[in-house]
Amino acid sequence: MTETPLEFRTARAADVPPVIEILREASLWLRSRGLPSGWPVPYPADILLRHVARSELYVVDRGPEIAIATVTLQWEDVPFWGERPPDGCYLHHFAVRRSVAGQRVGEQVVAWAERVARGRGRAFLRLDCLADDPVLIRYYERLGFERRGETTVGSLRMALLEKRLAGV
Q1: Verdict on whether the full-model pTM lies above 0.90
Q2: In the CATH scheme, what is the code of domain 6-127?
């Protein structure tokens, strides 16, 4: 049986409620593991609508399953990574519905983001996650990311992870 391919699309205003639900699920999952969530519950719609207006927020669908994952792609990230040359694509609001966890959806989102970044001539894919979450850090390391340091945002220690993209 062939798995239905993922469809990546730029989010519209109507996609903000399902994205908020995906981020809520991810936040509750982190809390169930004894970790703080970097995302408020509910996530503020106005922030996501700004990303929609800039065509930075994406939704992932699979067949009849609508909005099974979300990611924001940004082309700079001074608050987390500081001033840098325009060589990276930064992933934020990256979350997968718990109902599809373990089905390699996150891995496919990262592969798609790599293609988008390469298409823009970017040499790196960068993201941040909780520095106290070894499970998530190992996951990203298995996908080829390397730890590049830490930063503190509010009361949260965030690990900075980077992946060099081949062919750029």
Answers
A1: yes
A2: 3.40.630.30
